[in-house]
Amino acid sequence: MAIELDRAQRDQAIQSLTRYVEQELDQRLGNIAAGALLGFFLEEIAPLVYNQAVAAVQDRLSQRVAEVDVEVHEDEFQYWRRREAKAGGRR
What pLDDT band is residue 72 in, cutting at 50, 70 and 90? Predict the structure, then answer.
């Protein structure tokens, strides 16, 4: 699954990359080079982050599904117990 950014996100990411390179590396990076670098990051590194996020979500969902039986459990055959409890309170 390709990771894509919409136009506004891409523009903001390019702006952030150029700012980072200028402030942290003390070098100038043009928009074309920043766009190419962003494309590289999205193709090469972003899938790693994406897959880790998916794995984390799968783990969390598995935990939640495992807890469903506890959260929504109803005891069976409670009619007579409840009826006897009510009758016991009326005596």
Answer: confident
